[in-house]
Amino acid sequence: MGILDDILNNVKLEGEEEKEKKSESVPPVKLEEEKKNEPVPPIELEDKKEEEKKSETISSVVNVSNKKNLYSNLDDLEEGIGSFNVKIIGVGGAGCNVINHMLATREWGEKVDIFALNTDYNSLLKLKGKTNTILLGKTLLRGAGSGGDPLIGECAVKENIDTLKEILSGTDVLFIIAGLGKGTGSGASPEIAKVAKELNILVISIVNLPSIIAEGTEVYTNALGSFESLKANSDSITTISNDKIIKACGNIISFKEAFKEADEEVTSIVYEIVEGITVPSDVNVDLNDVKNFFKGNAVFLSRIISSEGDYDSESLYQLIQNALEKSYSNVSVSSQNISIIANLKISNKIPPSIVADISNIFKQISKGANIKIVNGINYSTDEKLRISLLISGNSDGTQSSSDTSHYENKPNNDYISFGNSGNNTSKLNPYKLFADTPTEKTRGLKVKKATLDKSRLIDDTFIDDETKEKDKYSEAMTKAVEGILGSSNEEDPKNN
Q1: Treating both helix axes as pointing N-terminal to C-terminal, what angle do 255-278 and 92-105 enclose, rounded to 10 degrees?
Q2: What tens digit of pLDDT does each residue of 399-457 get?
Q3: What angle do CA 221, 226, 228 make, to 5 degrees?
């Protein structure tokens, strides 16, 4: 029995080993068949799609629910609402130099269009490809310039009136930048402002006044005549004085750097105003705030103040006082009613009392004037305090102070009459004019040869009427009057 049992056990073992071999070598088809018989597991991809559908459904329900609860008409507004257009026009050589500086030192947004206008072809070539360029008086002057004659500059721009109307169409705010005293800036700028005013555009003019010492009385006289005309056609105007730049810079910096200072001064004024109305703040100054300020103030002053460290009102007083004293402008702060737009960039450490402090400081400076102030506030992580100020000025942007009591002879704002009737008058400048006999140059105008009555000039500079400058000034004044009145008097029947 023992031998038989061993044989049977071996047979069983061999049979089991054979079965295992066979099960291991089952062809794939059989495995597939077995899988068919197994229950089908859930398909992950389909589940994922199903989940996404459910999520979208829930999301759409939430969105629909929100739309039902919230009202807005922002999508239904007409095209152009909520946006506005700013144009900057540099006129003449000085104006084009400022435009060049602007483009090199600042980024201007899509809402700002910049133009350079000149009668000098070569001057415009420097800006070709950088910004919009227009050659004035192309037919009349053929790019040769105005020769320093304001009347030529005026005639040149009139050749381009239709082009001006086209480029100014749809403009909300126009900045006119020019140097006064020579031909193109003095002659063309008032005409550009006139076209803009006819199109109901807010016109802000920033002009450079020549140095009477360095550039002479004729240039300065031209500047005064142009200033009055430009002021009459602008909502507001401010000045940069070459005499003040020369006085401030002295021999410290080069001639080139001094006039770069002037370009930067104008650029910063324009940039601060543009940024104030185009860049949203935490407390916003809107376009109508700016319009109200400029339409209510014939002349204005712009200053920028910055400081680091702890804030206190006494330090702020000194900063504002210094900024006003070091201004290159001849505009002084009004002594009666002062309007101010203050754009503040402040850190979280600055107390809310700063707004009241600014108002109180200007009350002290003006010795009790009524203050109207609009504040724009932008919170910053920067520790620096920065304040951009627009301040209403006195009535005459060519005067360096509203207080004329210290002058031996106060400015006399006489009027010039012309034509036989004497009814037509044109205010020229703060100089006193005396009537002698008509000259051939005035062609029968009742404007007589001007004599200088030791009147105050820019930057407290005087020309004694006993000096040789008297006759030169008389000639320059006569020429300026002739240029302002134009050639229309020759054709006026009343003058024949």
Answers
A1: 70
A2: 433 332 322 233 333 322 222 233 333 333 332 222 233 333 333 323 323 333 333 33
A3: 100
Amino acid at site 371: I
Which strand ranges, in their side-by-side order, compose the sheet holding 173-179?
A: 132-135, 112-118, 86-91, 173-179, 202-209, 236-241
Coil, strand, or helix at residue 464? coil
Q: Token digits for 357?
A: 């402090």
Q: Looking at the predicted structure, is the pLDDT value of residue 24 above 70?
A: no
CA angle 472, 95, 400 (to 5 degrees): 55
Three-class secondary structure of residue 134 per DSSP? strand
- Whole-number Å distance between alpha carbons of 181 and 361: 36
The C-alpha atoms of residue 422 and residue 447 are separated, in whole angstroms, by 10
pLDDT one-digit tens code per residue, 75-99: 766 666 767 899 999 999 999 999 9
Going by C-alpha positions, the residue among 242, 327, 364, 341 that lies closest to residue 291 is 341
Cα angle for residues 385, 386, 392 (degrees, 5° grid): 135
Continuous H helices in 209-312: 212-215, 217-232, 242-249, 255-278, 287-296
Q: Minimal CA–CA distance to 273: which of 206, 209, 367?
A: 206
186 within 8 A of 230, measured Cβ to Cβ: no
Helix/strand number for the chain, H first, E second: 18, 12
The gap between the terminal CA atoms of the chain, to the nearest Å, is: 163
Q: Pseudo-torsion of CA 459, 465, 468, 471, nearest 10°?
A: 100
Name the token pair of 111: 């809402």
> Helices 184-198 and 161-168: crossing angle, nearest 10°?
50
